[in-house]
Amino acid sequence: MRIISGNHKGKHIIAPQNLPVRPTTDIGKESLFNILYNFFHFDAIHVLDLFAGTGNISYEFAARGALSVVSVDKHQACTQFIKSTATKLHFENIHTINQEALNYIRQTRQKYHIIFADPPYDWTEFNLLPTLIFENKLLLPDGFLIIEHPKTIEYKTYDKFYQHRKYGKVNFSIFAENL
């Protein structure tokens, strides 16, 4: 895995083999950030990375200067890896939380410009993510919710659905608060 842009552009990060993760591919990540670049000034946003895994997406936002990136994962080994990597890279804008994602969504009162969620593809609660996030009003005006999901998941009929993007085997559904 590598950081594709920002103050650590090209930096390779090697995650431990024992983490229960499936990092977003570089091509999917680069394509997604090209879209986001048209909507956001990265140095003026607050980001939530749910199911953060290795921190792949968190590092990308941090390297581009996000004001804050909250990385949530229920696996302690994942949050410890993110925390240690953020320290090594001097990413003071990354904050890790070791908690199950749906519990975090239900409890937090923080609002974000971008919420990125990349649950395991065999997760059975995909339908709850947009519902809970919008019910709890976690997005700021003009904010985006981006869910990475398997091709079998369909969100087009959901309220606030904006668009679907596919890059190889990577599928992103984007929801917008005010589009």
Characterize this entry briefly:
This protein has 179 residues and is α/β, with parallel strands linked by helices. The protein is built from five helices and seven strands; from the N terminus they run H-E-H-E-H-E-H-E-H-E-E-E.
Radius of gyration, CA atoms, in whole angstroms: 15 Å
Main beta sheet: strand number and arrangement? 7 strands, mixed
Poorly predicted segments = none
- Structural class, from secondary structure content? alpha/beta
CATH class: Alpha Beta
Mean pLDDT: 93
- List SSEs in N-to-C order: HEHEHEHEHEEE
CATH superfamily: Vaccinia Virus protein VP39
Spatial ordering of strands, largest sheet: 3-2-1-4-5-7-6
How many strand elements? 7
End-to-end separation in angstroms reads: 32 Å
**Beta-strand residue fraction:** 25-35%
Count the DSSP helices. Answer: 5
Portion of residues within helices? 25-40%
CATH topology: Rossmann fold
Reported CATH architecture: 3-Layer(aba) Sandwich
What does this structure look like?
The chain is α/β, with parallel strands linked by helices. The chain has one domain: Vaccinia Virus protein VP39 (Rossmann fold, 3-Layer(aba) Sandwich), CATH 3.40.50. It is built from 5 helices and 7 strands. The protein has a 7-stranded mixed beta sheet with strand order 3-2-1-4-5-7-6, with helices on both faces. It is globular, with a radius of gyration of 15 Å. The protein starts with about 25 loop residues before the first helix and ends with a strand. About 40% of the residues are buried.
